[in-house]
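Course exercise 7: structure representation. Students receive a sequence record and must write out the corresponding structure in token form. The form below is the worked example handed out in class, using HTH cro/C1-type domain-containing protein (88 residues). Read each field label carefully; the graders check that inputs and outputs are placed in the correct fields and that the protein name is recorded exactly as given.

STUDENT ID: A-19
EXERCISE PROTEIN: HTH cro/C1-type domain-containing protein
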Amino acid sequence: MKIDALIQEKRQDPEFNQAYEAEGEKLATALALYHAREGAGLTQAELAERAHTTQATIAKIERGDNVSFEKLQTIAHAMGKKLTVGFK
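STUDENT ANSWER:
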């Protein structure tokens, strides 16, 4: 069985599907930060210095670890950006 078919099968389970969706949202946030940082031409260390945090914190967020809105807002401002949140 191919992985896509297996995922589709597992997503029929509401509990699995909820967890799958939640992980997808975390990944989207992680990728958004990564692309914004890369687009700004900054390393993790450079962004961390500007945001008054650590490189390890930036790395954790880019891996999809939980983070507060306040921390994301501070990081966005350090890149000269504004944090926006949307619901689909």
